[in-house]
Fold:
Amino acid sequence: MWQISVSFLILCFSLNNSYDITVPSRVVFYDQPNYEGKSVDAVCSLTGCCDITPELAGRVGSYQLKTGCAKFYEEFKCDGRFSLIRNSSESVLYPLRKISSFRSCMWWL
Structure:
């Protein structure tokens, strides 16, 4: 049993250092001029908040929408410049960050 725990711990560390850097082309930033009126999936700011366009709102899934902003789970808070990635297996958005949280991974041990 302890071998399984050790193996899982190693997996947690390796996942915690993994990044998914696939950035959708239809994401723009507030610091980019003249984004209004363009066909984009989301408009992102440095505040960890994302304005979701109507066609995307139905695919946000279980994330809570408040006043046009999608607030993400704590594990996925952004580092530095805020970007979005689209998970390859789900139609939800994640900030561009480490794809696995060591803390949430350790919870399963």
